[in-house]
Amino acid sequence: MNHFADQPSQIMQPILKSSKLANVCYDIRGPVLDHAKQMEEEGHHIIKLNIGNPALFGFDAPAEILQDVIYNLSAASGYCDSKGLFAARKAIMHYTQEKHIHDVRMEDIYIGNGVSELIVMAMQALLNSGDEVLIPSPDYPLWTAAVVLAGGTARHYVCDEQAGWLPDLDDIRSKITPNTRAIVIINPNNPTGALYPDDLLHEIIEIARQHHLIIYADEIYDKVLYDDATHTSIASLADDVLFITLNGLSKNYRAAGFRSGWAVVSGKKQFARDYIAGLTMLASMRLCANVPSQFGIQTALGGYQSINDLVMPTGRLMRQRDLAWKLLTDIPGVTCFKPKAAMYLFPRLDPEMYPIENDQQFVLDLLIEEKVLLVQGSGFNWPYPDHFRVVFLPNSDDLSEAIGRIANFLGRYRKRAGRE
């Protein structure tokens, strides 16, 4: 007998997401991508310039890394130490020595399921409600999302396009309050491709020193460098500030799907014992990072650096950077800093020629009309509707086709706006 048959029916209340997610955004995989997926299901071919996923464009992980992972699979079925495999952390420790980061020990290294997991963990371990973190604008949006999710407030400091997208030090100083806990730098930078010189890094350290701030250094592109550029880890320049340096296999080694990244604690560790204990607790709570991919870390860091072949003048990445930059800047009203590093361009549309009010709608219209998928500048917490990010990983033919379509769309846009 059904005891509920005679009960009045109850109207099911909608199940709402947590209020903690109210201001969390990640538009790299946001609503425009959802529309692109729908179009693909309808049979349209979309040229995707929206995400830095090297494997999709024929950039394969080095064979020796894959071989080591496969060879060690039989030893990878159990949990490992919550901070990571010994050999992998030892290799990371040696890499920090190559980068001249001082006094890094095995216990200072945390391996995570990609740098993304470690960013979220680092913010969860640090922030109380109302705490503030200085984050660049434009940024990699996960940083802002992780701060907000942890109950903190993201305070965006301006990177100056006219100065090659370098952080504006005066703006950084103006954003510091008694609630500021940390400053994030993304160097090399996503989405702009900027590479920070040593004198700027010293200035940022001095600001952190004066205001007792932690420096979080996202250095995931530290080997993707062009035109004989060199990268300096900010943590190598001082030992009296607390640094958390993040890196991984995703970009330098084209192994994004391995989800293998690491965080290195260095500098003023003795004053951060409680915070470090919090990080260790969070690392333990997720038991460990995925084990199979950790068997590739030692080989990656100590083996042949095939990324160098890709970024040399005749290498595929550098050729595609140069091609995409030229094609974009040939379009009327489009200017763009030529990136010194990473895999992206962040072009600007002259507002006089392109009076855009909603840049998400702009990239959606481009998708619908030309079947090209981009991410709008506001998706990187840029405050004006005048930029978008282009990934230059597709091969030269696809890049030429995609940017040709962008040029056609912009030509129609100018005409519709009466700006021809």
TrEMBL record:
Residues 45-406 form the Aminotransferase class I/classII large domain. Its EC number is 2.6.1.2. The keyword Cytoplasm does not apply. Keywords: Aminotransferase, Pyridoxal phosphate, Transferase. Pfam families: Aminotran_1_2. Its cofactor is pyridoxal 5'-phosphate. The keyword Transferase applies. Gene3D superfamilies: Aspartate Aminotransferase, domain 1 (3.90.1150.10), Type I PLP-dependent aspartate aminotransferase-like (Major domain) (3.40.640.10). Belongs to the class-I pyridoxal-phosphate-dependent aminotransferase family. This is alanine transaminase. The lineage of its organism: Bacteria, Pseudomonadati, Pseudomonadota, Betaproteobacteria, Nitrosomonadales.
